[in-house]
Design goal:
The strands form 4 sheets. Strands 3, 4, 6, 7, 8, 9, 11 and 12 form an 8-stranded antiparallel β-sheet that branches. Strands 14-20-19-16-17 form a 5-stranded mixed β-sheet, with no helix packed on it. The chain has 417 residues and is α+β, with helices and mostly antiparallel strands. The chain contains 4 helices and 20 strands. Bound molecules: zinc ion (ZN). The site of zinc ion has 6 residues, from loops.
């Protein structure tokens, strides 16, 4: 009070300063509270999955290759023309000529009986439309006139096991067959493929190339086949760098067809597929448990999958998932369930490259002795679907090498009278 009375000017100034300070404090409070409200909205942390360091990654590789030389193509065309003329004379080609009654193509592959993987293929290359595929992307190589379906995973094992069959995409007549050529090709250069050629009831023609030697249908040229009927086994005959089916399609006037409808396919306006699959047909083909990560050896050596479903507690189990058409926007959620359905471990794996036609992830996980024995489950959620694989864990059995076996050792034996 004293100071104020004696220094009226000073007192007024102090009051103003105090008012300003109060206003500033209030303003700061308002700013902070607004920031707290808006901060989570403005700078919401983008939740990015972190892949564990011990996840092993790999992918399918197929070189860009020319499947048929011009000379080979000319030979095939001449043979087809000759055979069709002969079959027409024999009355074995009853063609319709109206595209309105055209056939639609069924999927040309299936797993042989006894094989029950979620999937078994990927698509490496589509038909080349001046440097792009039907969907205006780049899954082609120059001059490619067909669709390449490769086997995934373990293409050589699948070929050796006759696991994936080529089947006729539509009803028709066999108009040509080529067999007897080596089917473990890893490179290009003048090799002849094994193939079956079918003319459909509307006059269109499908070529099924690179088949396994000796696997071709026993039906002869001129015999009919139905949609879904066995034609051969996927192989790597001819100019090829791994087992795959090359499907090439022509209309009745021998115009090349790309069965896939898309804005960059100028060949045909409509899809020739009964059901056209999506451009990125992203899915899990197979889940495995194993004793080690898979080994993909150099062509044409078979792969070593190291698959196993029986383990002992305290083992390290490799959990592997094999994908087709995985894109970098698709994370994979992995979960290991105990026999009582409780979660033992869970992790997310990610992919950096924008697209892989075939890829895998494998992670070693040790399941300790304290865990319960019984049937365990490995589950993967990917692209909206859930995939499961079961495996068995048994109690640790006593290891003989750890046990002492006491044998009576008698030193300095006394002679017994
Ligand atoms: Zn091809």
């Amino acid at each position: 009070m004293f100071a104020r009375e004696n220094h009226p000017v000073n007192w007024k100034l102090r009051r103003r300063i105090r008012t300003i300070i109060i206003l500033l404090v209030l303003l700061q409070g308002i700013i902070l509270s607004v920031c707290q409200i808006t901060r989570p909205l403005v700078a919401a942390p983008v939740e990015q999955a972190v892949e564990p360091d011990d996840v092993i990654s790999g992918h399918h590789e197929m070189e860009h290759v020319e499947h048929l030389s011009d000379e080979q193509r000319s030979e095939i065309e001449a043979q087809l023309a000759q055979n069709m003329a002969m079959l027409t004379t024999q009355g074995k080609l009853a063609m319709r000529v109206n595209r309105e009654t055209a056939v639609s193509l069924n999927w040309p592959l299936q797993q042989a009986s006894g094989f029950n993987d979620y999937g078994y293929h990927g698509i490496s290359f589509f038909v080349d439309h001046n440097g792009q595929d039907y969907s205006c992307d780049s899954r082609i190589y120059g001059g490619h006139r067909g669709t390449d379906f490769f086997l995934w995973p373990f293409e050589w094992n699948k070929m050796d096991d006759n696991a994936v069959e080529v089947i006729s995409a539509a009803d028709g007549v066999i108009i040509h067959k080529q067999d007897g050529n080596d089917d473990r090709s890893c490179s290009i250069g003048g090799k002849t493929w094994n193939a079956v050629y079918v003319q459909h009831v509307d006059g269109s023609v499908a070529w099924y190339g690179h088949l396994k030697i000796g696997s071709l249908t026993t039906k002869n040229i001129g015999e009919t086949v139905q949609a879904g009927e066995y034609l051969g086994i996927v192989g790597s005959s001819g100019n090829s760098t791994g087992p795959h089916l090359h499907l090439e399609v022509y209309d009745i006037n021998y115009n090349l067809i790309d069965p896939y409808q898309g804005s960059c396919n100028p060949l045909n306006d409509t899809s020739w597929w009964l059901t056209q699959r999506p451009y990125y047909d992203s899915a899990v083909n197979k889940l495995t448990t194993g004793t080690a990560a898979p080994e993909f050896n150099s062509c044409p050596s078979p792969e070593i999958s190291h698959e196993a479903t029986q383990f002992t507690l305290d083992d390290t189990v490799y959990f592997s998932a094999y994908f087709r058409d995985r894109t970098n926007s698709l994370d994979s959620q992995n979960t290991i369930y105990r026999p009582d359905n409780s979660i033992f471990d869970a992790w997310t794996d990610t992919q950096r490259s924008s697209h892989r036609d075939g890829s895998y992830k494998s992670r070693p996980v040790t399941i300790g002795k304290e865990e319960p024995a019984g049937q365990w489950r490995y589950e993967v959620v990917f692209n909206g679907s859930t995939y499961q694989h079961t495996f068995q864990l048994e109690e640790t059995t006593p290891n003989n090498t750890d046990e002492f076996i006491y044998l009576p050792i008698v030193t300095n034996p006394k002679l017994i009278d």
